[in-house]
Write a structure and sequence with these properties.
2 copies of one chain form a homodimer.
Chain A lengths: L8 H7 L16 H9 L15 E5 H18 L2 E2 L9 H9 L5 E3 L2 H9 L5 E3 L6 H13 L3 E5 L2 H14 L3 E6 L12 H12 L3 E8 L10 H24 L6 E4 L16 E2 L9 H4 L17 E9 L5 E4 L3 H4 L7 E2 L6 E3 L6 E4 L12 E5 L3 H5 L4 E6 L2 E7 L8
Helix pairs in contact in A: 5-6, 6-7, 8-9
Chain lengths: 411, 411
Amino acid sequence: MRSAAKMSRRNFLMTSGAATVWASGTAHGYTAAEMRVKAAGGDLTGVSKWDLDTPALCVDLDKLEQNIATMRKSLAVVKVASRPHAKTHKCPAIAKLQLAGGSIGICTAKISEAEVFSANGVEPILMTTSNVTPNKIRRAMAIRKANRQFIQAVDYPQNALDLNDAAKEAGISADIVIDVAVGTRSGVPAGDQAVALAKLVDKLPYLKLRGVISYDGSAQHIKGFKNRLDQTLKRFEPSIETLEKMQRAGLSTEIFSGGGTGTYNILPKAPGVTDLQVGSYIFMDCQYLEIGGESNDEVYTDFAPSLTVLATVLNTYFEKSITTDAGAKALTLNKPGPWVIGEKDFVYNAGSDEFGVIKYEKAERSYKVGDKLELIVPHCDPAVNEYDQLYAIRKDRVEAVWPIAARGHSQ
Amino acid sequence: MRSAAKMSRRNFLMTSGAATVWASGTAHGYTAAEMRVKAAGGDLTGVSKWDLDTPALCVDLDKLEQNIATMRKSLAVVKVASRPHAKTHKCPAIAKLQLAGGSIGICTAKISEAEVFSANGVEPILMTTSNVTPNKIRRAMAIRKANRQFIQAVDYPQNALDLNDAAKEAGISADIVIDVAVGTRSGVPAGDQAVALAKLVDKLPYLKLRGVISYDGSAQHIKGFKNRLDQTLKRFEPSIETLEKMQRAGLSTEIFSGGGTGTYNILPKAPGVTDLQVGSYIFMDCQYLEIGGESNDEVYTDFAPSLTVLATVLNTYFEKSITTDAGAKALTLNKPGPWVIGEKDFVYNAGSDEFGVIKYEKAERSYKVGDKLELIVPHCDPAVNEYDQLYAIRKDRVEAVWPIAARGHSQ
């Protein structure tokens, strides 16, 4: 998808999915339950994505695989690994593709997600949020007991003490990374406080210090590559200094993990970084497409938009207006978008819970009730969280039905 | 909750849930799965809402029952029925409480929702969106065949013909209401086009015309009662004229359904209205609280906010900032809100997928990691759609665990 030429959002929408509009009248319209039965029976022969009951969440496998290969190739050059964040897809099948594609593990945000991935045979898991309640601590130790590759984050001394007690009680040694804050959302403040916490973890007999995670959520969507580069590296400096202090103190810095899809080609420039917590690169979304890339200021074309929602036209009575069956419960309220593939002038408002409303001045074709549209979602993570299953598509055919096994696991 | 006195949002937040903050360290923290097991075993004795693993979606039963009673009482005076929209709660247990509380039926937005409620023993269902694909039409007929109280909406002549064919094939007569547009989102334009469609439905041998639905989504959240009253009745005039034309043509107008929580005391003033499609009144949310009511310009206090999300404090390192475990996947991005019960100055940003970030100048108490907060959700419908189960609470004790059986059913 890289191109030296500038590519506007409008042109991008025309070239990324021409002729994807489906005309009504012929498709079967298989329900979610029917598709699960077909997949379980091993017979998905000939089911087109246009046969799916809508709204339907789809991932294009050629694009997904291309994104995994692009990330692997890019990071191989700079000798940094990927540890993709599974909060994006919540789907064990995709985690396994990522691991097969060279990733050293996955991240999860919540303990309930880690439980799902661990139970589905995904073992190298780094949980990036600390577990602060007795219940969640107990569950974290249960995962670690069953899965020696489970690592968890800590950002408070009391929490380290609590984890140590729980690890002792569980009869294990728990692997720990220090979450060093970039910004003020989560983590221990960089510098002496973080180093002191690392020393405490290092000393506690039932904990094993593995290094540092330091994620900058605000950096990922800074528009313009140069601006994003400068701000990311500047904001990351205190984390680097913290790491260096830890190294001088003889503490483990085996892991120094951070970064995301917006900074995958920026954070490797920071010294010591071992792996990136990239998430959205496998799917992409309107929010990432519009940040611009190193080679294209207008659209971030490093990765291909593989994730789409299929919607059906419900109403065309009103001038320059189309109503669809995909609203906020199918697409979320994130801005910008959604973008309608093949229609550069459509403005899609997913503000109604159950309906999408498109306003336009000019359409590439005419639409009637029952026609289908394909949409790039505003923000992939919460959009995925609205669905129980993801249709894996290759050349418009359904190749697999993947359970989004950790959907709704926000605990 | 009605009060002649003006009540600001700030005072409302202090009086609607004083002393609901829970201090860390003692609660069990039952997981969703553990709570399902407990509920199935019939033993929820002594489980406090503060024992739930967070984020947790809760409904206060006293307030829910109060809201059902308030609606019943208010509509009894004007001799209009309620036909609550189940897209709000997606929960058969709540639909049954509404029917027991005097509602004449429920509405659903999607065929997959209608299937869930019908399968769970809720029979009087009016589906407010038309079914336009062959698959959905077939499913609608299957519901109608099993459930004689199923009614569906139509807004296109071709759709009426398709439904007639499908009803014939299924060996049934399908009950139909004409969806008359208010605004430009869904429905047939009011006036001659709508009357012609009603005549077509009336003539088709396998369809039975039952009347009209006409919902004004834009009217519900107009701020200020007088303004909302004036605009609602003005915008509804073409629907009334359409109904009167149908009556003069001798067509059935047995049903004339519309309105919502914001207009429950307005739409009954329109002639001919038989029932209201109220949804949010059972739960309330920040969006409705801030529209103001007839007796209180500042806060809409006609119904009590029964729906809350419990969240846990994760981080307090940073000045005048608190991070919680409830972000967009727990609360949605709808504005305004969420509101923190008991804290009038907190500004809660659910913009992160996994975290909530509170900024404040002044707090009623101090917070530490592990403490719990109770939040009123920004917009109840999509927030409910993020959860698999709803905890039914009475006086802070869990009385039932209700599956949100139609969650994710956006098809």
